């Protein structure tokens, strides 16, 4: 009976599972290291390709959060290699100290006048008057809304912009990508340009950025002088015979304006800029 009891006890005792060998942590660490190295290389490759855009975004973000510290006396060095420098402004720049601006080699200024079919820039009249008073050669521009009628937009501009002899040609700013049909957009642009040229007797300037020009405008308006916005490049990628003004920065500073302003250079010399002005009407 003792033997039987011992055997029963042994049979009812829970069996112990065999102890599995402990896995080494080295392969897991190597895998994590490889993943980390791969992510680092991918990040470096991405930065190497898009470093200009990344740096620009970082600068703009920093500027946004430090804007309250600006005094209106900040100054960005002018672009070397050019002798005629200018700015373009709108109500976004707030009240401008034009006499101060004129002290810092700003020879011309394009001033926003209108947008779409109803909008009038709230600071146009003041900027228009004060820029001329300090000897800065002025021009006016219209911000084009591509889904609105070109004739109505031209009418808004001529009712609000009293261009006279000595002023720079009118400008059409075409860069809004929110349009339904590129062919319709081009027809409206052509209408605005044609009506404005007929009204003022001078050929308008077409403003746009490099990517928009290449995608939608290249080859369609070559008879009009081109003012090209192209940032983060040493020079525009378009040939020099394609453009007359280069907007090389939209984050520059000039004393007299509190906050960033667009910087532009004219491709020719000062005499060539003067030759672009609206002439006196023949008697």
UniProtKB/TrEMBL annotation:
Belongs to the glycosyl hydrolase 25 family. It comes from the Bacteria. CDD domains: GH25_YegX-like (cd06524). The keyword Hydrolase applies. InterPro entries: GH (IPR017853), Glyco_hydro_25 (IPR002053), Glyco_hydro_fam25_subgr (IPR018077). The keyword Hydrolase applies. One of its GO terms (molecular function) is lysozyme activity. Keywords: Glycosidase, Hydrolase. It holds the Pfam family Glyco_hydro_25. SUPFAM superfamilies: (Trans)glycosidases (SSF51445). GO terms for biological process: carbohydrate catabolic process; cell wall macromolecule catabolic process; peptidoglycan catabolic process. This is Glycoside hydrolase family 25 protein. It comes from Hymenobacter qilianensis.
């Amino acid at each position: 009976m003792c033997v039987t009891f011992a055997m029963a006890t042994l049979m009812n005792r829970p069996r112990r599972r065999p102890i599995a060998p402990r896995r080494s942590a080295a392969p897991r660490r190597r895998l994590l290291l490889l993943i980390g190295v791969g992510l680092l290389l991918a990040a470096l490759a991405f930065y190497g390709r898009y470093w200009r855009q990344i740096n620009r975004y970082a600068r703009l973000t920093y500027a946004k959060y430090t804007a309250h510290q600006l005094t209106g006396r900040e100054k960005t060095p002018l672009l070397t290699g050019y002798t005629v420098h200018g700015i373009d402004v709108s109500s976004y720049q707030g009240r401008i100290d034009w006499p101060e601006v004129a002290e810092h080699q700003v020879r011309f200024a394009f001033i926003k006048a209108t947008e779409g079919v109803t909008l009038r820039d709230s600071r146009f009249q003041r900027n228009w008057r004060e820029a001329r008073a300090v000897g800065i050669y002025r021009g006016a521009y219209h911000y084009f809304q591509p889904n609105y009628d070109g004739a109505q937009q031209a009418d808004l501009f001529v009712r609000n912009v009293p261009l006279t002899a000595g002023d720079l040609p009118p400008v059409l700013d075409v860069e809004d990508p929110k349009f339904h049909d590129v062919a319709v957009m081009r027809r409206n642009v052509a209408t605005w340009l044609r009506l404005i040229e007929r009204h003022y007797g001078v050929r308008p300037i077409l403003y746009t950025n490099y990517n928009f020009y290449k995608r939608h405008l290249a080859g369609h308006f070559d008879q009009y002088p081109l003012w090209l916005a192209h940032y983060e490049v040493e020079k525009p990628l378009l040939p020099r015979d394609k453009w007359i003004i280069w907007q090389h920065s939209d984050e520059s500073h000039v004393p007299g304006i509190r906050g960033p302003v667009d910087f532009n250079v004219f491709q020719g010399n000062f005499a060539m800029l003067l030759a672009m002005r609206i002439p006196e009407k023949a008697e």
